[in-house]
């Protein structure tokens, strides 16, 4: 009986020692970075590596390897601003050359050119395409609203307007030069620029992107403007900017578009109406809906007072007269 009890105590003690040794070994293995034998790790797939950016340097083959099959693409790429990424020593191979945009190419090469083993823009969604481009182009005021822009919301991706390999315009790698690129969708504005009085866009004096931030803005119509939407107009029309001692409320509140058609129209000065008085009387009326003073009773619109601007010359604002006489 004593022998049995001693054997039992010895077995229990030996079991405890084995258990403690196993736990200690597991902890040591985890601290040294070695995986536990009971939890083997599975290798990440190429798709996972592209989505998480966890690819190793060995997964990148370099632009020269891409060139062996895509010679035409390489020749065009060599002439673009993206070529400067070849000298990017800070980001490593994931930021250089073809693989900076298309992801690691080792699996693509090993698969004999299998397109499912690399990121291709042609078959990607708008969100995926824009996400790739914004990896590098997200900084600065030009692109800060790109992912929430009107273009993005309407299914227009970066490669709808830009072509990294086959751009017709060397500036910004556009698939077409402005304004023809914009007219691909904005046909109404194209007709307005053909009116007798218009901003000289088709003549090449200004461009659509001079007034609109095509990558997105916090204002309607993606206008490059201040809160009054007039700063963009003052880039050229500096004499209308002020500040004035006597501000014209129409200019301060509604902006230039209260009287003018911004792209073009049939009337001189691109006015919305051919009769200047009709524009003024939209606000200067005795009705209760307008806070502007009504026209005096002696202003007979049928005779001498057929044009308000004959007397009220400084209609954008004046430093001398509260009636904008000069």
Protein model, in words:
The chain has 326 residues and is an all-alpha fold. 33% of the residues lie in helices and 2% in strands. It has three domains: 56-120, no CATH class; 141-224, no CATH class; 235-326, no CATH class. It has a two-stranded antiparallel ribbon. The protein has a two-stranded antiparallel ribbon with strand order 2-4. The radius of gyration is 34 Å and the shape is elongated. The model is unreliable at 1-48 (pLDDT under 50).
Roughly what percent helix?
Answer: 25-40%
* Series of secondary-structure elements, N-terminal to C-terminal: HHHHHHHHHHHEHHEHEHE
Oligomer: single chain
Binned strand content:
under 5%
Strand order of the largest sheet: 1-3
General shape: elongated
- Strand elements, count: 4
Q: What does the largest sheet look like?
A: 2 strands, antiparallel
Structural class: mainly alpha
Indicate the low-confidence ranges by residue numbers.
1-48
Distance between the termini: 124 Å
Mean pLDDT: 81
* Count of alpha and pi helical runs: 15
Measured on Cα atoms, how large is the radius of gyration?
34 Å
Overall domain count: 3
């Amino acid at each position: 009986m004593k022998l049995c009890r001693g054997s039992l105590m010895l077995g229990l003690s030996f079991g405890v020692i084995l258990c403690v040794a196993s736990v200690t070994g597991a902890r040591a293995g985890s601290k040294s970075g070695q995986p536990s034998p009971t939890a083997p790790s599975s290798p990440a797939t190429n798709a996972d590596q592209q989505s998480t950016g966890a690819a190793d340097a060995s997964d990148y083959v370099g632009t020269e390897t891409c060139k062996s099959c895509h010679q035409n693409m390489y020749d065009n790429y060599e002439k673009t601003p993206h070529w400067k990424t070849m000298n990017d020593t800070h980001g490593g191979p994931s930021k250089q050359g073809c693989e900076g945009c298309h992801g690691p190419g080792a699996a693509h090469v090993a698969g004999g050119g299998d397109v499912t083993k690399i990121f291709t823009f042609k078959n990607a969604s708008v969100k995926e395409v824009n996400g790739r481009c914004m990896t590098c182009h997200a900084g600065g005021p030009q692109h800060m609203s790109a992912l929430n822009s009107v273009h993005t919301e309407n299914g227009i991706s970066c490669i709808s307007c830009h072509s990294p390999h086959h751009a017709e315009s060397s500036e910004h790698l556009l698939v077409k030069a402005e304004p023809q690129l914009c007219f691909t969708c904005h046909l109404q504005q194209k007709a307005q620029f053909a009116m007798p009085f218009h901003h000289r866009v088709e003549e090449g004096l200004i461009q659509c992107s001079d007034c609109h931030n095509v990558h997105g803005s916090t204002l309607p119509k993606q206008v490059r403007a201040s809160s009054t939407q007039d700063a963009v107009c003052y880039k050229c029309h500096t004499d209308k900017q002020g500040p004035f001692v006597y501000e014209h409320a129409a200019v301060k509140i509604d902006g230039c578009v209260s009287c003018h058609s911004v792209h073009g129209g049939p009337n001189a000065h691109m006015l919305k109406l051919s009769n200047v008085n009709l524009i003024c009387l939209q606000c200067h009326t005795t009705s209760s809906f307008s806070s502007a003073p009504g026209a005096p009773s002696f202003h007979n619109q049928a005779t001498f007072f057929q044009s308000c601007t004959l007397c009220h010359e400084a209609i954008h604002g004046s430093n001398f007269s509260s009636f904008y006489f000069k």
